Protein: ABC transporter ATP-binding protein
Organism: Lentilactobacillus fungorum
Amino acid sequence: MSVLEVSHVSKSYGSKSVIVDVNLSFEENKIYGLLGRNGAGKSTLLNIITNRTFADDGEVKIDSENVADNDSKLGLMYLMSEVDLYPNGAKLSQIIADSELMYGDFDHHLADRLVDQFGIDLSQKFGKLSTGYNSIFKLILALCLPVKFVILDEPVLGLDANHRELFYSELLDSYATNPRTFILSTHLIEEVANIISDVIILDQGRIILNQPVEDALAKTHSVVGPRQDVEQYTKGLNVVGRDNMGNIRANYVYGDLDDRPLPDTLQLSNFDLQKLFIFLTNQYEGGRPNEN
Ligand SMILES: Nc1ncnc2c1ncn2[C@@H]1O[C@H](COP(=O)(O)OP(=O)(O)OP(=O)(O)O)[C@@H](O)[C@H]1O
């Protein structure tokens, strides 16, 4: 069982702390969603994990071995990001051949299907690809290389809605036939909410949530009804957001409810991951977040 562990990792650029004492454990065969507002530090963290950027403090290990300058461990991860690692003049088929030399087995069967479904021509030169096809090509590499940790930073950048749907369905298909660990960093929370098993929220370089999606959603409660009743019922609870609709008030609670019976005037339901993300990342703006 391969586990990727991030321990006490910190990174600053000049006087700005970008990653602050981050501890994370990525277990085998899970699909993690790494979420965070612009500038939260997601790309920096993924670059540190894959040894493309050096941390000031802390370490990244796979199965208890440090990954820094450790080719056998680095070869277990593939980071797809908007940074292009391939020469503009290289043909896509050549990049696939070179990647296969570097990583070992390449799933040509899956690649052929993806090439066909996305309609990409492998005789093209990398530098001539449109933004969307640049992402599509790198996604094909990510899904077909024999790595245990597939790390995707903004995977659907530039993809149209049809291609995004196709990618999500192919990702799930590929995961089902060949379970491994995926880390998806994205702003399109609604699109990945049903795909990811675990959610990690990074805010100003700190982890403010790290849980199975199911557990996180089970702690979301929207309490709707007359303003006074809502306020009374949610007093003392962890109210992370509020909405007003005329005389009707919605208070959004994250955490456990207490044993008080729900008054007849109030309606209780759960709310979704995107709302939770917005509330938590607004709440902690400039403040001191707590893990979980
Ligand atoms: N090479 C660098 N030099 C200086 N500052 C940097 C560098 N790389 C990143 N930063 C800063 O670190 C912070 C985090 O950037 P990062 O790209 O990791 O965030 P992100 O969460 O991926 O953002 P986005 O969602 O907007 O892509 C930002 O304030 C950014 O300006």
Observations:
- Residues 13, 18, 36, 38-44 surround adenosine-5'-triphosphate (CB under 6 Å).
- The two ends are 25 Å apart (CA to CA).
- The longest helix spans residues 161-177.
